[in-house]
Amino acid sequence: MSSTLCLSSLLHIGRRSLRSTTLQKTSLPSQHIMVHHNQQQHHRFKHSVRVILTRDLPEGQMRGMYAGEVHHVAAGYARNYLIPKQMAVYATERNFERCGLVDPQLMLEKEVTERDEEEDNEDLKAADLLRKYLRNKTVKIIRNVDLNTPTLCHPGHVSAKNLRDKLSSQLKIDLQPHETIQIRNAHVVGLEEMEEKEMMGLIMGMEGGDEGVDCDTKVKHLGDYLAKITLAGGYAVPLQFRVERR
Predict the structure, then answer these.
(1) What gap in Å lies between CA 195 and CA 199, rounded to an integer?
(2) Within 13 Å and on the Cβ side, how many CA atoms surround 220?
(3) Planar angle of CA 124, 130, 136, nearest 5 degrees
(4) How far is C-alpha 221 from the geometric centre of its chain's CA atoms?
């Protein structure tokens, strides 16, 4: 594989690693699988409560359930049978503490939150990597011009698809379908000397298009321009491009 594919490869490897890590971290222990089973049980009862079993239940309608497990049961079954016979207690925060257990629902919510935060961090890292790579690079697009108006492209224009294609051919960056390009259709004077912070200010002030869709803006004049690449997580990266006369 050519060395010019290094950035594209890094980005794709990073995304695959994130998905692999996410899949591994979503492999829940048996206790969480039991929670899913309990949630299915919950739909069978119009009026149900969560209980913590304090004894193994070898018989009856909950046979095969064991002490320490958390289940949804019919409210009447808990009130009239399990609780009076000291087979279970209501799944309250205080009772979890008394039993020395952690509420599996809270554990599941915590894992989901941590996984979302990790995905956000990986998205931010990918955006920073692309931003640094593009910082001193300009995509060049050549167009014919109108003989009577030397700065007007004729025939033709520059669209988001043209930029996507040039990113791939010139810089070896292949954007994913959900990663979009929005063009700022105004010539930028002194773009090469502009600080990144100022560029970010220009592109963040742009009106966004439909989510997951490139803009339909078309540049029809020669000059230096800015575009906004939006990556996963909504992170934006400025792209400099220049339309030159053939």
Answers:
(1) 7
(2) 8
(3) 135
(4) 36
